[in-house]
UniProtKB/TrEMBL annotation:
<dbReference type="InterPro" id="IPR036188">
    <property type="entry name" value="FAD/NAD-bd_sf"/>
</dbReference>
<dbReference type="InterPro" id="IPR051820">
    <property type="entry name" value="FAD-binding_MO"/>
</dbReference>
<comment type="similarity">
    <text>Belongs to the FAD-binding monooxygenase family.</text>
</comment>
<dbReference type="Pfam" id="PF00743">
    <property type="entry name" value="FMO-like"/>
</dbReference>
<protein>
    <submittedName>
        <fullName>NAD(P)/FAD-dependent oxidoreductase</fullName>
    </submittedName>
</protein>
<keyword id="KW-0285">Flavoprotein</keyword>
<keyword id="KW-0274">FAD</keyword>
<dbReference type="Pfam" id="PF13450">
    <property type="entry name" value="NAD_binding_8"/>
</dbReference>
<dbReference type="InterPro" id="IPR020946">
    <property type="entry name" value="Flavin_mOase-like"/>
</dbReference>
<keyword id="KW-0503">Monooxygenase</keyword>
<keyword id="KW-0560">Oxidoreductase</keyword>
Length: 497
């Protein structure tokens, strides 16, 4: 039941979920199902739900994980395409929200601009700006669940390119794709080699005169079937629910096996990936120049291309790959350090994201600002020294949502434990101040490395390790108790005293 704080004339809820993307919708569903008596709202800064899958509009946008694991455990993925396009994923997310009665809980154009915790009242005061009207309003809550992901929605990352202003064509970042961009019959240069670039290149190749993927360093690229034949068979013979469950188990095991094999036998994994790439590319193609990275598999995320569409575009002569460094932009394209100039009518800067932890919202605890690099992540979902605050960050080496589901389950169990024992406050604290720490996301991707100093840390032992293993997290977050010697509970009176 929603109440009003008469002292501050502010609406008060038990939980405020920040973000109506895949994590926020998941959190809302678990709260509504597991704790139906809790009041909550989902605050969304944009005008629509869906997060990433509504924001990005570039050609070919799709998942790079199968939807049987990227989808929710509680809602079967019914589409026959397991590597799915953004519109299909968006429809799935919005259907989930509607089926679980979440539409009325989502408040659009509500951007959180600050949050402060008061121990004497055991609650958060949250400042919100209405993006549509500019109005400021104040809300209070017992818990904040930050579900906005880890990148900045209003601005993608673009390096500073010498001579950018000289280029006479269009320069486009995938995060801000113009609806009216006409690339039919145009020469396109896509700068980048990550998941976005390998998606855009084959999607544009069908209509463009030619598409070049210009990369500084190669990335591991693997073809994967768009349709999972075994998943279709499971669904046909076992039914929708059981078939989905068995497909998830299969794909979770498959993801873990590939990752574990790559980490244990990196040289062999490199050879296998190279062999697969060579079979997909034209005879005599310089595989080692364009598809043989200097790092080991899974030091950075592998890129998946459904049905080998990138390789097919290269075989058909509609796309090509250039590995070189940019010297400058010119009036008519890109000049490389080798002296070669790539002619272009359109340049796409698929150069990555800007990481923005917790949506960039400044938080304070009893009037003291919280510096994220000074905190340590507890179970990958809370911050040391910060009470009643949870966040959702998924896996980097597997499907994002696998971890989100476990975090949401654990969060609901934690709130149930507090209800049972009459607690108002829950705060993780590191018992050993000398515990060694390292970056929260131990990952080599450029967008992570650029922001590593802005993120929380992780420790060298549980519960301060950030697990990237689903089976370990099933035990930690689903099977083990929610209590821990380094997780402290309290009541308002005790806290005030």
């Amino acid at each position: 039941m929603v109440i009003f704080d008469k002292a501050a004339d502010a609406e008060h809820l038990d939980v405020l979920i920040v973000g109506a993307g895949i994590s926020g919708i998941g959190a809302g569903r678990y709260l509504r199902t597991e704790l139906p008596g809790r009041s909550f709202a989902i605050l969304e800064a944009r005008a629509a739900s869906g997060g990433t899958w509504d924001l990005f509009r570039y050609p070919g946008i799709r998942s790079d994980s199968d939807l049987h694991t990227f989808g929710y455990e509680f809602k079967p993925w019914r589409d026959e395409e397991s590597i799915a396009s953004a519109p299909r994923i968006l429809a799935y997310l919005r259907e989930t929200a509607t089926e679980n009665g979440l539409d009325a809980h989502i408040r659009y154009h509500h951007r959180v601009v600050g949050a402060s915790w008061a121990s004497e009242r055991a609650r958060w005061t949250v400042e919100v700006e209405r993006a549509d009207t500019g109005e400021r309003l104040t809300m209070t809550c017992g818990w904040i669940f930050s579900a906005g992901g880890y990148y900045r929605y209003d601005e993608g990352f673009t390096p500073s390119f010498t001579g950018r202003d000289r280029f006479q064509g269009a320069i486009v970042h995938p995060q801000h794709w113009p609806e009216d961009l006409d690339y039919h019959g145009k020469r396109v240069v896509v700068i980048g080699s990550g998941a976005t670039a390998v998606t855009i290149v084959p999607a544009m190749a069908g209509d463009a005169a030619h598409v070049m993927m210009l990369q500084r360093t190669p990335t591991y690229v693997l073809p994967a079937p768009k349709r999972d034949a075994l998943a279709i068979a499971f669904r046909r013979y076992l039914g929708e629910q059981r078939g989905y469950a068995w497909t998830r188990r299969k794909n979770i095991a498959q993801q873990k096996a590939i990752w574990a094999f790559s980490k244990r036998y990196p040289a062999t994994a490199r050879k296998i990936i190279r062999w697969v790439n060579a079979r997909q590319l034209p005879a005599g193609y310089p595989v080692d120049e364009h598809f043989h990275p200097p790092y080991d598999p899974w030091d950075q995320r592998l890129c998946v291309v459904p049905d080998g569409d990138l390789f097919r575009s290269i075989r058909d002569g509609k796309a090509s790959v250039v590995t070189d460094r940019i010297a400058s932009f010119t009036e008519h394209g890109v000049l490389l350090e080798s002296g070669r100039e790539l002619a272009a009518d359109i340049i796409v800067t698929a150069t990555g994201l800007n990481v923005l932890a917790l949506g960039g919202v400044p938080i304070t605890v009893d009037d003291t600002p919280v510096r994220l690099p000074d905190t340590v992540a507890y179970k990958g979902m809370m911050l040391s020294g910060v009470p009643n605050f949870a966040f959702a960050i998924g896996y980097t080496n597997s499907s994002w949502t696998l971890k989100i589901g476990l975090l949401c389950e654990h969060f609901c169990r934690l709130l149930q434990h507090m209800d049972t024992h009459g607690y108002d406050v829950c705060r993780p604290e590191v018992a050993d101040p000398a515990m060694p720490t390292r970056p929260f996301l131990d990952f080599g991707a450029g967008y992570i490395q650029r922001a590593v100093g802005q993120l929380p840390r992780q420790g060298d032992r549980m519960p301060w390790l950030t697990s990237m293993d689903y089976q370990s997290d099933v035990k930690l977050l689903r099977a083990d108790a929610v209590t821990d010697p380094e997780l402290h509970f309290g009541r308002v009176a005790v806290t005030a005293a």
